[in-house]
Amino acid sequence: MKLIKARDYEDISRKAANLISAQIILKPDSVLGLATGSTPIGIYNKLVDWYNKGDLDFSQVRTVNLDEYCGLSKDNEQSYCYFMNHHLFYHVNIDLKNTNFPNGMECDAVKECNRYNQVIEDMGGIDMQLLGLGTNGHIGFNEPSDTFIRNTHQVTLLNDTVVANSRFFDSLDEVPKKAYTMGVGHIMNAKKIILAVSGENKSEILNQVLNGPVTPLVPATILQFHPDVTVVADEAALSALA
Length: 242
Ligand code: GLP
Description:
One of its GO terms (cellular component) is cytoplasm. The active site is at 67 (proton acceptor), 136 (for ring-opening step), 138 (proton acceptor), 143 (for ring-opening step). The protein is an alpha/beta fold. The chain has seven helices and ten strands. The protein has a seven-stranded parallel beta sheet, sandwiched between helices. The model has no long low-confidence stretch (mean pLDDT 97).
């Protein structure tokens, strides 16, 4: 894994956005795998800035998002679709028809997971996948478990994830307990991966991801087996590095 040491959150945002920009410039019809959470917000802000300056063209870009909460509609303010629309898609010239999410309102999990697997396959896979890192080592919503799950699946969120994500909701009770997530296989099939990690609360888990044994108990450790991962992390996130 390549490690890019950034000073702080702002520096992560600029460096990771530069890598994504280069991808779009080199391949205007790139398939981007996108992530939500606090970490990518600064990256998306930079991409919007550079689009406004005329440096980026999203007209041919296609996207697949990692995950979506079950039970939240696309226009629910807490849905990941709403997040992406408001942080990136509504501000650039992407065709919304080319943006894809698991449908959190589909109750038939088998049907929805098959549909999303097909969406990713029909696009020919992912050129560049942006990832954040959960404090428990999750990527997307691939939670720590006994096995790595290859394809899109419905997951029951672990309590620490529900608690961590409750900061975006009015109360803990409002956090959905289930989600659909792209599987580890789709993530690992991406041609390039960027893992963005910020803050001291991620330092212990980032050390395990970079230096620990590969185990589904820390799902992001699987990235050690990918040939083209770039970790962009700030000094705080790197403070526990062995
Ligand atoms: C959520 C998302 C993940 C994200 C993680 C970390 O659980 N499903 O894709 O990486 O949060 O988020 P943050 O960047 O806010 O720490």
